């Protein structure tokens, strides 16, 4: 009995030492990763995920009260984790091994579709967005103002979601936005038009944008309100690549063998000429498309070369109408449909544009304003309100 008790004590002692050693090693690893993340410098962009990464947020009282700052700090800790790309690969492997249908905010849907898991909006931010948009519209009562919030593929292709997948109620959210705008901005609901054509190729399978065809159907729905004539016969689709893999594939690792086709649309009337100027650097091009992007990881940048603070498009359309567009990347493949109807188009990305909104309105003699965002993007956005407020 004594030998047995002694053996048990020795065995238990060795196990305790192993546990302590394992705990110490784990603690050291965590400390090293945290140190590397803290002192390694912030990464601005992830090539693998094809998206901007969260840098250290600006700390404000309003941000704390709305919950925005907490969310941004959490995103910062995740995005700036040392060795992030390797951890993403491991997470994807584990997710697929156990047959999970969602990872990194991406659902693995049916028919080869990847669908975004849309977050609940920051309600405080949305209220502020509405305040600034309506205030901006009230400053220019003679200017036609419109808003389009593009539904996500999750909201239109809902039948492709995994069983039981929770989803943010985009429809109710857009109704709230339309109500908050009152009569100052015409809200254009394009979801019904997209639902009518949901069996067509209106969303990419691996990316969170609508395709050129989806953008056209939205444009057609908006044309009456915006007093434009719209017909797909006026435009010619040209496929530029059939091996595009978008941000949903990059973020989740799902769909590694699925590829999308990108079509760009040209106005058939060759007498329409456009000159695109990219500001602030002042470079100019006779085309709205960047073929060089087709050799890059993110081929969606074929539209205007990707993210730009301010794009100025002059056209030969002698309509006298000048359009100012506040947009995210959803607008990139939508704008070409607008060029036959406006003499000038100014497209602003508020997340990186340093211009003054009111100066643009006055100096460019703007006659029409369009707010064009993806619903999910708009629900999380703070940049537009800042941009409009700073213009006062």
Describe, in plain words, how this protein is organized in 3D.
By secondary structure, the chain is α/β, with parallel strands linked by helices. The chain folds into 2 domains: 2-40; 114-390, no CATH class. The chain has 13 helices and 15 strands. Strand 1 and strand 2 (51-52) form a beta hairpin. The protein starts with a helix and ends with a helix. The model has no long low-confidence stretch (mean pLDDT 85).
Please supply descriptive tags for the structure shown above.
single chain; 392 residues; alpha/beta; three-stranded antiparallel β-sheet; 13 helices; 18% strand; globular
Domains (count): 2
* Rg over alpha carbons: 25 Å
Report the total helices: 13
Structural class: alpha/beta
DSSP strand tally: 15
Uncertain segments are none
- What average pLDDT do the residues reach? 85
Amino- and carboxy-terminal Cα gap: 87 Å
Q: Output the helix-strand order.
A: HEEHHHEEEHEHHEHHEHEEEEEEHEHH
Task: For the largest sheet, list the strands in their spatial order.
Answer: 7-6-15-13-14-12-10-11
Main sheet characteristics? 8 strands, mixed
Name the beta content range: 15-25%
Q: What's the helical proportion of residues?
A: 25-40%
Give the overall shape.
Answer: globular
């Amino acid at each position: 009995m004594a030998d047995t008790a002694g053996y048990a004590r020795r065995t238990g002692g060795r196990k305790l030492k192993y546990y302590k050693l394992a705990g110490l090693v784990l603690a050291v690893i965590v400390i090293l990763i945290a140190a590397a993340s803290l002192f390694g410098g912030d990464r601005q962009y992830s090539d693998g995920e094809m998206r901007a990464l969260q840098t250290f947020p600006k700390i404000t009282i309003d941000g704390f009260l709305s919950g925005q700052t907490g969310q941004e700090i959490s995103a910062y800790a995740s995005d700036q984790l040392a060795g992030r790309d390797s951890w993403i690969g491991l997470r994807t492997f584990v997710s697929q091994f156990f047959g999970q249908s969602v990872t990194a905010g991406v659902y693995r849907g049916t028919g080869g579709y990847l669908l975004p898991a849309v977050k609940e909006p920051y309600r405080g931010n949305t209220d502020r967005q509405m305040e600034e948009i309506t205030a901006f519209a009230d400053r220019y009562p003679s200017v036609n103002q419109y808003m389009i919030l593009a539904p996500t593929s999750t909201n239109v292709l809902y039948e492709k979601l995994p069983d039981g997948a929770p989803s943010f109620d985009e429809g109710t959210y857009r109704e709230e936005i339309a109500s908050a705008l009152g009569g100052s901005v015409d809200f254009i609901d394009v979801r019904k038009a997209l639902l009518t054509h949901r069996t067509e190729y209106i969303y990419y399978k691996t990316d969170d944008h609508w395709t050129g065809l989806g953008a056209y159907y939205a444009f057609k729905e908006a044309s009456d309100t915006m007093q434009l004539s719209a017909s797909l016969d006026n435009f010619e689709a040209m496929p530029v690549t059939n091996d595009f893999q978008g941000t949903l594939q990059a973020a989740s690792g799902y769909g590694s063998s699925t590829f999308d086709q990108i079509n760009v649309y040209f106005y058939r009337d060759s007498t329409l000429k456009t000159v695109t100027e990219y500001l602030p650097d002042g470079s100019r091009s006779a085309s709205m498309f960047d073929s060089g992007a087709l050799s890059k990881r993110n081929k969606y940048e074929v539209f205007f070369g990707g993210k730009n603070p301010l794009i100025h498009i002059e056209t030969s359309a002698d309509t006298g109408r000048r359009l100012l567009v506040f947009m995210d990347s959803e607008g990139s493949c939508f704008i070409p449909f607008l060029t036959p109807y406006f003499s000038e188009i100014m497209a602003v990305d508020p997340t990186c544009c340093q211009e003054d909104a009111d100066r643009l309105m006055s100096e460019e003699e703007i006659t029409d304003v369009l707010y064009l965002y993806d619903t999910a993007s708009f629900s999380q956005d703070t940049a537009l309100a800042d941009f409009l407020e700073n213009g006062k």
